[in-house]
Amino acid sequence: MRRRDVLAGVLALAASPASARPPIPNHGTPRELLSPPFVDGDGRDLTLADFEGRVVLLNIWATWCPPCREEMPTLDALQARLGGSDFHVLPLSIDRAGLEPVRRFYRETGIRNLDLYIAEDTRAMLAWAVVGLPTTILIDRIGRERGRLAGPAEWNSPEAVAQISALIDERKQ
């Protein structure tokens, strides 16, 4: 095969529409995951261990982040569609001003299906190796990282729903 043919194939793959690809690149092997403490909208202290038994889509975001704000309605729609005893969208805000800006943002944008969570920004970003916002981590039922995406996505797209549904359907390992 000629070098030119290989290059053409790579460029064609890269040029495919983003919506046709799964939104979260999967890891070949699940990775152990740290969990710093965070707080829910009722002031309860939590960690990821509190969600064990469910697939979790952890989205680390902030109200001051434009791409984060744009993708939040799609996360809300995903939670409405798949959320329940087997799956939970965990939108973890790192806003330094606390929960009030998040509550205000939810009211202003009509977010109705997502719970409120907040974490100390530096601690969360270091523990989860976040280098930019939003960062989304797909977590299996036993708390392992199965995939990660830095940057926004359309979480209620057919591709995202299919990818997450496949993980939900996996038997507990």
Automatic annotation (TrEMBL):
It is found in: Cell envelope. Pfam families: Redoxin. Keywords: Cytochrome c-type biogenesis, Redox-active center, Signal. The keyword Signal applies. Residues 25-169 form the Thioredoxin domain. InterPro entries: Redoxin (IPR013740), Thioredoxin-like_sf (IPR036249), Thioredoxin_CS (IPR017937), Thioredoxin_domain (IPR013766), Thioredoxin_ResA/DsbE_sf (IPR050553). Residues 1-20 form the signal peptide. PANTHER family: PROTEIN DIPZ, THIOL:DISULFIDE INTERCHANGE PROTEIN DSBE. This is TlpA family protein disulfide reductase.
